[in-house]
Design brief:
Number of strands: 13
Shape: elongated
Strand order of the largest sheet: 8-9-5-10-4-11-12-13
Strand content: 15-25%
Number of helices: 11
Helix content: 25-40%
Order of helices and strands: HEEHEHEHEHEEEEHEHEHEHEHH
Structural class: alpha/beta
Radius of gyration: 21 Å
Length: 355
C-alpha cells in the first residue's frame, strides 16, 4: 500500500472528473470547496447553482468514489449544496436587497423526519460552556427515558465527538447518514469528518448548507421509534448558522447559556434579541460555571430583566470538564451533584417538550 493520500493527491484525482458546465477538471473549475484530507477521512463542499443540483448528483457520486479509492482514505463525505445567486457588477439592487436589517428568510423546511421536538442550545459568545451544557442535557434526557438525538451544529468548533467519546465515522444507508450512538444518544457532527486538529474553513453559506444536510439527511429515528427530542448545539453568536436553523426549521424552543459576568451577559442579551426577532421561543437562561471565580446570580438577574425563565445554575466544577475530556459526560454518571443539576434542568425542559 502506498503513502496515505494528501490534499494534492486528492485534487489530482478530483481533476479527473469533468465539470459539466465548464468541461474542465473539477478542481480546476473551482468546484472543490473546503477540501479536507486527514486521518483517513476526506470530504469537501460541491457548491453549484441552484438550477444545476440535479446535474451534479452523478458528479458528487463520482467524486466520492474517486476519494474513496485513494490510499489511506476510509471515510468520504461530499456535500452538494446550491450557491446563492450574486448580483452582476453594476446591477441595481432592489430595495429588499438593500435592506440589510431585514434579510429574506430562507424557504422553510419541515421538521426533521421522525423527530417530535427540536431544542436548540445557544450562547451569545464562546467559552461559556454551551457545548458542555448541550451534551449533558442530551444525556440527562436519555437517562430520563427519552429517545434523544444530538446535532453538533457548531461547525467551526465541533466538540461532541470528544465529549461523547466517539471517534469513528457515520455510515451511509439508502442515501442517509446513520448517526453514531453513545450514552443512549444518537449523535451527528461535522467533527466526524474532520480531524480534531483540522480547521474547517467554510464560508457562512457553506456552513449553513452543511448544517441543513446533517439536520435533514440523518436517520434520526423510525416510524416505530421517533426521537422525542433533538438537541442542537449551535455555534456561539448570532450568525449565518443560527439564522439558517431558526428560519428554515421549526424550533420548539431555545435555551441560552451564559456565565454570570457582564461580558457574557451582554452577548446573551443579543442572542435573546435575535431569537425574539425570528419568532423563536426562548425557554430560558442557564447560568454555567457559577462560583467564586465568575460569581453567581448574573444570569438569573438577567433572565428577570428579559422576562425569560431562569432554568437553573450549574456550578464551576472540575468534574464536568474532566468528564467532557474523557468522553464520559457527568450527566450520564447520575449519582453526583453535577449530574443532579443537569437532571433538574432537563426535567424542567421535558415538561415543556411534553406540552
Amino acid at each position: 500500500m502506498g503513502e496515505p493520500a494528501d490534499k494534492n493527491i486528492a485534487l489530482e484525482a478530483l481533476n479527473e472528473i469533468k465539470d459539466p458546465r465548464s468541461g474542465r477538471g473539477l478542481a480546476d473549475a473551482g468546484e472543490v470547496k473546503g477540501l479536507i484530507v486527514s486521518g483517513g477521512k476526506a470530504g469537501f463542499m460541491l457548491e453549484v447553482p441552484g438550477d444545476a443540483v440535479a446535474t451534479y448528483g452523478p458528479v458528487r457520486e463520482a467524486a466520492e468514489a474517486a476519494l474513496r479509492a485513494l490510499p489511506g482514505i476510509e471515510t468520504v463525505r461530499v456535500v452538494l449544496t446550491a450557491e446563492t445567486a450574486k448580483p452582476q457588477r453594476g446591477a441595481r439592487l432592489s430595495s429588499e436587497a438593500m435592506d440589510q436589517g431585514r434579510p429574506k428568510a430562507p424557504v422553510p423546511t419541515d421538521r426533521p423526519e421522525h423527530v417530535r421536538a427540536v431544542l436548540a442550545v445557544a450562547s451569545g459568545k464562546g467559552g461559556v460552556g454551551k457545548s458542555t451544557v448541550a451534551v449533558n442535557l442530551a444525556c440527562a434526557f436519555s437517562a430520563q427515558g427519552l429517545r434523544v438525538g444530538l446535532l453538533d451544529a457548531d461547525v467551526y468548533g465541533p466538540s461532541a465527538p470528544l465529549m461523547m467519546g466517539l471517534s469513528e465515522a457515520p455510515r451511509h444507508e439508502d442515501g442517509r447518514l446513520v448517526p453514531l450512538e453513545a450514552w443512549g444518544v444518537k449523535v451527528m457532527s461535522v467533527g466526524f469528518l474532520v480531524g480534531a486538529d483540522q480547521a474547517l474553513i467554510w464560508r457562512g453559506p457553506m456552513a449553513s448548507q452543511a448544517l441543513t444536510q446533517m439536520l435533514t439527511q440523518t436517520r434520526w429515528g423510525t416510524d416505530a421509534e421517533p426521537l422525542d427530542v433533538l438537541v442542537v448545539d449551535l455555534p456561539p453568536g448570532t450568525g449565518d448558522v443560527q439564522l439558517t436553523l431558526v428560519q428554515k426549521t421549526p424550533i420548539d424552543g431555545v435555551v441560552i447559556v451564559s456565565t454570570p459576568q457582564e461580558a457574557a451577559l451582554a452577548d446573551a442579551r443579543r442572542a435573546h434579541a435575535m431569537f425574539g426577532k425570528t419568532g423563536t421561543p426562548v425557554w430560558g437562561l442557564i447560568e454555567n460555571m457559577a462560583g467564586d471565580v465568575f460569581g453567581r446570580g448574573g444570569a438569573q438577574a438577567e433572565a428577570e430583566r428579559l422576562g425569560a425563565p431562569f432554568l437553573g445554575e450549574l456550578p464551576l466544577n472540575p468534574a464536568i470538564r474532566q468528564g467532557g475530556d474523557a468522553g464520559r459526560p457527568v450527566a450520564a454518571e447520575r449519582e453526583t451533584a453535577s449530574a443532579h443539576a443537569f437532571d433538574s434542568i432537563a426535567r424542567t425542559l421535558a415538561v415543556r417538550l411534553a406540552g
